[in-house]
């Protein structure tokens, strides 16, 4: 038995290495159907064929649907694109005298961070149905790679009050660095500082994004800044 014992240990270690979760691989999926409207979609999906990847891909698709105003009654991304195109054709038929530019729907994702504890995906959408300008926004989706479920902010940050104070100081520093004539009074429409809905991870630190109209006028566009991991580390539950 003494001679077999080291061999058994080696077998156990090899088995543990096989069972250890491997990093998920992602690939870009393109929907290149020809539509009358200007429609493009390129989004990341997990490649592995298992329940974990299926849950991640379902969350990605659902998050994309929620970012588009035309997603009513659409249960899939392909259905959403068909509905958008059908609405465009109906508009042209109902108002043939209106010479609006062609409608646009552009969807794109980017994998900004991946670790054993969290995956962050940035979802960028642009929707134009005529008028002065289109509607564009960025959504940061944080996913637990072990379960495939979405991570709420309280699953990422352990002290929201302390993190909010840190974010406020970093926000002020960022806007003052970008524009000497801009101050925090130009934001939040007279209300106190508030965290954005979109907080996610990158290789350098936490990304915080305010979409158009969230904290300032349309002319200022997106408001984005970063908090380094060194500063954010005391407030993080996951890295």
Explain how this protein is built.
By secondary structure, the chain is an alpha+beta fold. The strands form 2 sheets. Strands 1-2-3-4-5 form a 5-stranded mixed β-sheet, with helices on one face. Strands 6-7-8 form a 3-stranded antiparallel β-sheet. It is flat, with a radius of gyration of 23 Å. It starts with a helix and ends in a 7-residue tail after the last helix. The N terminus is likely disordered.
Number of strands: 8
Estimate the global geometry from the Cα principal axes.
flat
N-to-C CA distance:
44 Å
Low-pLDDT runs of 5+ residues are: 1-20
Secondary structure layout plus pairing:
Layout: H1 4-19, E1 26-31, E2 38-46, H2 51-67, H3 77-94, E3 104-114, E4 119-128, E5 135-143, H4 160-178, E6 198-201, E7 205-210, E8 223-228, H5 229-232
Parallel strand pairs: 2-3
Antiparallel strand pairs: 1-2, 3-4, 4-5, 6-7, 7-8
């Amino acid at each position: 038995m003494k001679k077999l014992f080291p061999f058994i240990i080696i077998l156990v270690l090899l088995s543990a290495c096989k069972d250890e979760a491997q990093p998920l691989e992602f690939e870009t999926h393109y929907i290149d159907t020809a539509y009358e409207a200007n429609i493009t979609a390129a989004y990341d999906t997990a490649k592995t064929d298992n329940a974990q990847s299926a849950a991640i891909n379902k969350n990605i698709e659902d998050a994309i649907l929620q970012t588009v105003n035309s997603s009513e009654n659409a249960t899939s991304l392909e259905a959403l694109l068909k509905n958008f195109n059908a609405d465009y054709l109906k508009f042209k038929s109902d108002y043939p005298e209106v010479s609006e530019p062609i409608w646009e729907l552009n969807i794109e994702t980017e994998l900004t961070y991946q670790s054993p504890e969290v995956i962050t995906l940035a979802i960028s959408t642009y929707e134009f149905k005529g008028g002065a300008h289109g509607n564009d926004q960025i959504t940061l989706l944080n996913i637990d790679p072990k379960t495939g479920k979405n991570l709420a902010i309280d699953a990422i940050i352990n002290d929201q009050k302390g993190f909010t104070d840190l974010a406020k100081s970093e926000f002020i520093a960022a806007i003052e660095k970008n524009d000497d004539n801009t101050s925090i009074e130009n934001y939040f429409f007279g209300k106190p500082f508030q965290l954005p809905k979109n907080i996610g991870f990158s290789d350098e630190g936490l990304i915080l994004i305010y979409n158009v109209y969230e904290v300032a006028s349309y002319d200022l566009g997106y408001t984005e800044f970063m908090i380094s991991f060194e500063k954010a580390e005391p407030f993080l539950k996951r890295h």
